[in-house]
Amino acid sequence: MPNPVTLSKYSIGVGDRFAREANAQLRACVLAQNGGVDVTPVWNKSNREHTIIGSEPSSTRAAADAAVRQLGWQNEYYVDADHINLKTVDRFLEPCDFFTIDVADLIDQPAEERDIQAFVDRHPELSGKLSMPGIDALFQSSREMVGRIARRYLSAVGEAGSIYRYIQREKGTGAFIPEVSMDETSSPQTPLELLIILAAIADEKIPIQTIAPKFTGRFNKGVDYEGNLKAFAKEFSDDVAVLAFAIDRYGLPKNLKLSVHSGSDKFAIYQPMRTVLQKFDAGVHLKTAGTTWLEELIGLAEAGGEGLRIAKEIYTEAYAHREELCAPYASVIDVDPANLPSPEDVKAWSSEQFVSALRHDPANPEYNSNVRQLLHVGFKIAAKMGQRYLNLLSEMRETVARNVTENLFQRHIKPLFIGA
How many Cβ atoms are within 10 Å of 165's Cβ, its own excluded? Predict the structure, then answer.
């Protein structure tokens, strides 16, 4: 391709569980543009979510295209085949132009010893004392250390290469944006590990434009960051510096940037991230995913009447099926059953009480992060309601859309990309 697709400096992953909020989400990017900052929307939805909802990736594409037409959006936008592998990628090939290649499950699957030794021999620059612009301390490494790290990650990177080449054969070179994801694993990657991963990705000739490592701290779904902010800020800064070094050393795409998964509602880290991005003049991809589904619920509850009734019903069902709903997300939620209100109590709540418990406003004493996390994974309940739920979204469109746009712009785009 003479003009391969290239992701811009700032981008935001916008999940839309029921493909009803693309217009409201895009309005948040329009507001950013009006504020002088271009933020590219990337509509993402995983195979697991499509399976739960009973939808197809083509519905995500159709919703995104319709919103772009309705709002006259002239900038780039993408549809992400989120967390795919070779078993799930086929249904995404036609409608998607962004592929999150998820190989976290292959981390710690030992590579062949001959491949490990070949990698170590091919990269003598990774052993010894490593100095990088933007990082004060030297990295102390050795052939043995590089070998140990390669043993952990080479199988995963090799699988990423296989998946990339499969998509490349089907879509064409330069026709899509590849991301490699390694965030859904038990321990964060160190900056040195990230550098070795990038060297291996370059060996596989994957022209990644974003990479999603696992960072220090807890990135639970729909709630704020939990962890040492200073440690995160240093790690994020070092990772940005590593990317800049790897771009220069290994010929990776010049727009390569970090992708922060489960990035929605991580209010505590947005300012440290912004400081680092300004320091390095770097970009970032922030993946917000399910926060939009929660804003749908907030909008319904805020509208009152049948909207509030169905929000309470969804909570009641989610409470009853808590373990089943939470199990697939065990690594990214912490729900304390003792701090969940009973369905009987919730049935007596006013619209204001329900909204206060669910809306992510830590300054509100009624906010309940356990309620928010449970409902975050409770979209399966709404999916089973089918047209009944979707009809309410249409009937209460103004209230729902306002909440979706305000949440995405005021709480996410503005503090990270524009500044308070």
Answer: 13
> pLDDT tens-digit profile of 172-190?
999 999 999 999 888 999 9
Q: Which domain holds residue 53?
A: 10-291+409-418
DSSP 303-342: H-THHHHHHHHHHHHHHHTHHHHHGGGGGG----GGGSPP
CA–centroid distance for 206 within its chain: 20
Q: Do 206 and 178 meet the contact criterion of CB atoms below 8 Å apart?
A: yes
One domain for residues 89 and 105: yes
Rg (CA), the chain: 22
Phi, psi of 41 (to 5 degrees): -80, 135
325 and 370 co-located in one domain: yes
Residue 42 within a domain: yes
Residue 295 phi/psi, 5-degree rounding, is -70, -30
* Whether pTM exceeds 0.70: yes
CATH of the domain at 98: 3.20.20.70
- The verdict on 234 and 299 lying in the same domain is no
| Burial group, residue 5, by CB count within 10 angstroms (0-12, 13-18, 19+) | middle
Cβ–Cβ < 8 Å for 61, 80: no
Q: What percent of the chain has pLDDT over 70?
A: 99
Pull the structure tokens for residue 76: 């780039």
Could you give the 3-state DSSP secondary structure of residue 180?
strand
